[in-house]
Amino acid sequence: MSGESCVSADLGDPYGPDAGLLAPGWAGSPASASTSDRAFLQALIDAETALTRAWAGLSLAPDAAASALSAVTAADLDTRSIALRARDGGNPVIPLVADLTAAVGGEYGPYVHRGATSQDIMDTAMMLVARRTLRTVIEDLERTARALRGIAAIHRDTALPGRTLTQHAVPTTFGLKVAGWRALVLDARDRLAALRLPAQLGGAAGTLAAFGSFGADDPQALVSSYARELGLAEPVLPWHTLRTPIGDLAGALALTAGALGKTAADVLTLSRTEIAEVAEGSGGGSSAMPHKANPVAATLIAAAARRAPGLAATLYASMAAEDERPAGAWHAEWEPLRELLRLVGGAARNAAELAEGLRVNADAMREHLGLTHGLIVSERLAVELTPVLGRARARDLLSRATERAVTEGRTLVDVLDEEPALKDLDLADLTDPTRCTGSAGALTDRALERR
């Protein structure tokens, strides 16, 4: 099927292709190949080829014309020349059509781009590139989810301090934290998988008029055939200025970047030298400090998460497109959409590698539970002591005991042991932070039931 071609980038530029020198987050990822200039050019050719095939399927173009066009690939054309000549008409389809027409010869040239407008081909190519890229993104999200599931199951009951507004709050478990990361990854996967990516075919002003002029008695049948050739959804209407497909794609990609960014933010915090509760499997080095093992994967994911919302905002702003074909709004989408696909593709690759190599330091987590000398369990103590002492007395006692523990440098349990009113309580059990994690285990189990 013509819609399945995919080749890597090569601009023929004297400085070489866009290899991602300033974008280590996506360099070398599957997304770097599926979104390259060469890959985009191939998608444009695939869209043109599918249109000729659709005409041939209605017996309105010779099969040989479709075969001749199918034989042309991006490798046969000068990508740089097409890019430079695109300035004349504002998009690369115009010079591409000229080159394809020349490539197939005078006999079949009239069947190239028949009835279409440049935006038909450009929008369709964008959907092809998105589909090819999302396929690998979803695979990497699945990898990430599998690895996180294993970590969450192993550390279902591994207690560590819960942190709110940067401070120790009450105990939680690492299993629940990781189950939350996984839930976000699955949310992102589901949204990407549910996207409807339609072909675009409407002609000059979205009326399909030219297709009827070229002999298509039922232009919608041509649209249906075109979409099938590409493996894309059949559009209900031409969507030249009805940009729901782009808006949906922007939202799902931005959500994915943010979902992965949450994991990265936590890993960056927990891998700090003074915390060291987790570490990347193979941290990156420093050009100046040989001792460092930086959390590079998390850093690159975090960078992608910061950039994605701005790119998505440009795509949302472009939805306010005037008339039947817009000037500027459509053109503004190409680069930010490609960059979003690249960023998310790279982030998904990095997240899978991060999750598969993550090292967990349960001893550090247990040690940190004691940093507040038992104050981390004050919530549980307030609940347990209220029935024994009454709310006001329990609150007063805990306030005084907490202040003494801090000022005297003692543990809370030591101070409470001196309280006669508490002599019949098992204070060691009540102040054990590993027994104060609430329903964390059950919540983790519930979250891991999701496939």
Keywords:
451 residues; mainly alpha; two-stranded antiparallel ribbon; two-stranded antiparallel sheet; 18 helices; elongated; disordered N terminus
Describe the structure.
It is built from 18 helices and four strands. The strands form two sheets. Strands 1-2 form a two-stranded antiparallel ribbon. The chain has a two-stranded antiparallel sheet with strand order 3-4. The radius of gyration is 29 Å and the shape is elongated.
- Main-sheet strand order equals 1-2
State the major sheet. 2 strands, antiparallel
Task: List SSEs in N-to-C order.
Answer: HHHHHHEEHHHHEHHEHHHHHH
Task: Using the CA coordinates, give the radius of gyration.
Answer: 29 Å
Oligomeric state of the chains present here: single chain
Low-confidence regions: 1-15
Element layout with pairings:
Layout: H1 30-34, H2 37-57, H3 63-70, H4 79-89, H5 93-108, H6 118-154, E1 159-164, E2 167-173, H7 174-193, H8 209-213, H9 219-230, H10 244-270, E3 278-279, H11 296-317, H12 334-357, E4 359-360, H13 362-368, H14 378-389, H15 391-408, H16 412-416, H17 427-430, H18 440-448
Antiparallel strand pairs: 1-2, 3-4
Helix pairs in contact: 2-3, 2-6, 2-9, 3-5, 4-5, 6-7, 6-12, 7-10, 7-18, 10-11, 10-12, 11-12, 14-15
